[in-house]
Amino acid sequence: MTTDAARSALRDPRGSRGVDLLRVPLLGRFLRLRRARLVAQTAMGLLALLLVLHGLLGPELAPKNLATLLVWVHWRGALVFGLLLLGNVFCFGCPLLLPREIARRLTSPVRRLPGALRNKWTGIALLVGVLFTYEWLDLWASPRATAIAILAYFAVALLVDAFFAGAPFCKWICPVGQFNFVASTFSPFEVRAKDRSTCEGCATKDCIKGRREPAAGGEERIVQRGCELALYVPSKVGNLDCTFCMDCVHACPHDNVEVGSRVPADELALDPVRSGVGRITKRVDLAALVVVFAFGALLNAFGMVGPVFDLQRWMAEQLGTRSEGVVLAILFVAALVVVPAIVLGAASLAVARTTGAAPFRHVVRFAYSLAPIGFGVWLAHYSFHFLTGLWTFVPVAQLAARDSGLTFLGKPDWGMGGLSEAAVWPIEIGFLALGTLGSIALTWRLAQRDFADAPARAFVPWFLVHASILGAALWLLAQPMEMRGTYL
User: What is the pLDDT of residues 284-310, one digit of tens each?
Assistant: First the structure.
């Protein structure tokens, strides 16, 4: 498909197709409330406050502390399930923006984030840093460190957004946000225009500029802001960089924005110029984020199985060091830089040899095919911990209440757990299969788009990449895995 045809296909009105979450009873009515996000953020903010207090003042034993249990078991599981079933719902309810909103009542920053930082490299570095710190400091085993990490996250978000206009922390810096952006490409819903012809006739462009009303002194004030992530709805494609904030929904004077159903990962198959993103085939930083997302899924799971400890001991002996940080740093560089470079480089060279294309020219394009299978690995891994420890928060909450002098929740029932490992295993396999099929289908579409004369020759090397990731994931998930953060 040509670029013009691709852009035309993406710009066709689609409001009459599929499901619009804004039209779903109860849910749609809630999302249309101007204070809906504030309600969700306040609830999450109160929960974050509870976790910080229990992490600092509660039991030091991680499985009996809400901070470690809810953050490292239940929140991560709920995060990936929310992305799979709906979209970027946790960015929608992110409590990190509450302090920013308070700060912006006192000051209105006008400076833009420096151009050198307006890319994904900082977010990639911080995402790797979070994964590294999680393993190095055993955050899952330390309630106090987890509480401090939550406070640090709030502080950084406030500092960045208090000094720079827009939402630079969300768009460029937040590591969880970058994870969500990639994972949400596989989500079944997206924020989009119902009828793009209506947008073309719109004179105010409130969805991006915000809605303004006259104020005292002849000036105007913004009564509803537009998209702070610079996503102009008529030119927006998919979920990349979209936090599901619903600001465009509330700002649009024509009720022309929906949260509509779509084919998961479809946005990665075409390459129009996207508002706020540009062409993804020109975004090396975005492709690198997808690569880290996919190989990071394998690395995160590898850190919880027996063979990794044998490997770390062997590496420590060979290096003559007792520093776990040094060993982990080498593992991270190998898993997130060396191995991806070898695997993707080999696939690119194979495509070049069989098709006559220039070597490495199509690495960025095909790197996006790693997003579905990477998400499948994250889903399989996190669902294991989430489902096997599904009800473990109940006795921990009961214990926390009793320690605070409250008895209405009753005596802790430590017999509450979750699904058996045998019951969860087919679910894990299903998620891996879902992600793998998504990557295979996406790769075939990319091969047809860029190698119309011989798509199979371009497809096979990248299919082998996905098969290798699937094989590694199956081996990892078949290993006995640590039940981190739970009393099971």
Answer: 999 999 999 999 999 999 998 888 889
